[in-house]
Design a protein that fits this description.
This protein has one domain (4-69): SH3 type barrels (Roll), CATH 2.30.30. By secondary structure, it is mainly beta. The chain has strands at 4-6, 16-21, 24-34, 40-44, 51-55, 60-64. Helix content is 0%, strand content 49%.
Amino acid sequence: MTNRTVDSTALWRGQRVRVHAGVHDLGAGVVDDLTEDGSIVWIVFGGAEPRRMFIEEDAARYSVLPPSSIG
């Protein structure tokens, strides 16, 4: 299965994604919550930074991952 990159308006809670900002791969996580219009997205990452908020100005991109790709 290939990953597809989407903007925040195509996300839903519980979805597994890899987050990119500019040329940086910020890692994989799960969509914890988001506003109805997708302007704010919270992603749960593992490790020291368990939850991070992304806003429109971050210009984050999300690659949708298959369900078994995050352990």
